[in-house]
Amino acid sequence: MKAVCQFEGSSNRGAQCMRYFRQAGRTFQVSALLTVLVMMFLLAGPLLAQETNQVANAPSTNAPLTITLQDALTRARANEPQYRSALTQYGVARENRVQSRAALLPNVNYNAEFLYTQGNGTSTGRFIGANGVHEYVSEGNAHQALSLQDVAEYRRARALEALAKAKSEIATRGLVVTVVQAYYRSIVAQRKYSTAQRTAGEAQHFFDITQKLERGGEVAHADTIKAQLQQQQQQRALQDAELEMERSRLELAVLIFPNFNENFTTVDDLENIGPLPSFQEVEAQAGNNNPQLRVALASLKAANQEVAVAWNSFLPSLTLDYFYGIYANHFAVNGFDPHNPNAGSFRNLGYAATATLQLPIWSWGAGRSKVKSAGLERDQAKVELSFAQRKMAADLKTLYAESQTARSELESLRLSADLAAESLRLTTLRYQAGEASVLEVVDAQNTLTLAQNGLGDGQVRFRVAVADLQTLTGTF
Prior knowledge:
Elements: H1 11-57, E1 65-67, H2 69-79, H3 81-102, E2 107-116, E3 134-146, H4 148-215, H5 221-256, E4 264-266, H6 279-289, H7 291-312, E5 317-328, E6 334-336, E7 345-347, E8 350-358, H8 366-432, H9 438-473
Parallel strand pairs: 1-4
Antiparallel strand pairs: 2-3, 3-5, 5-8, 6-7
Helix pairs in contact: 2-4, 3-4, 4-5, 4-7, 4-9, 6-8, 7-8, 8-9
């Protein structure tokens, strides 16, 4: 920047030069600030890009969601379609009951209408049904229908609501059984995979031992072949166990999650086994809380009301209507006669009432046919109720015996697993000492695998048996 100022001659010119220098200084400061900002932006760009890439390439640290049995039940109630369908049917039945009740109560409506008829030179118009060339309707209507058939239909709607409610309870308890099976099968599948891993490792270790003993001339080559066959078999079993674990895990995920999610773990609480109540307590709960019996009773009540509806269709019905408002040739509170202007005005606003009595006389046998059809359904409902009572008694004893047997076998299964583990340890030591054959070691390995898997299957059997029993009794 180059500037020349002369101070001679005028003090005003000196002041102008001073202002010029101050403006030039401010311009330089703004230019320097903008330059610094641009340099900072250019330097920060690669750094921000590098940090973004590091964040994008960083591994995901989302911890898996831990799911308990109660969590799985809660999630399944929100996502399982058949259970939601049963709840929807119950909601529809409840609303149908509300609508049926509304049919028994008075209702109020507002009617607004305008009619135009071609004139014929008189005050009526060309159509004989017309009261004038212009007709205006603006009135409220209170309507009440009195019919025993409507009362029977309301009672039927209440019975159908109770039926849908009982079916929704069946769906709820059935969902518990489904979730319990999927949840604990997933846990047992993980256990079996761990067992298969251990067994495969033991088979590989035993194969290494036989090779060493064969090289030392202590065992025959047949032992090595048998150990190698066992090792290959356990490797295949490990692959099958992994496949079953993934399959059961996916089945549980589909059941409890609204979207496809595999990032979760389950809590293994199979060892928390509670005692069973006595059969007398279970029988009392089943008598009060059995939804299958409620369904049969509600079906019979609905069938009885269906018969009542059919019979009441032969009875008369009464309909009452009360109207208040305007039904005139002029849309006004007060009207006048255009053909007689000296008559003065008159009031259009008023009321009217009607009563209609309907007597059924002939319907070509349709009413009688409805009575017969409803009677057949009622007879079928009686048979189903009797069968439900017998089946409840049989199922209660069967499911309680199943739960009791599964509960009593758990201790034996656990003891067998412990004994099998000790047998394998001792047999392996005896084989290394030359006191046992290779077949004994292989048999001990297979026995341990079966015992450990049997313990898990027995625990799942007990859990599912209790869930099945609770479909009749409710939670205990």
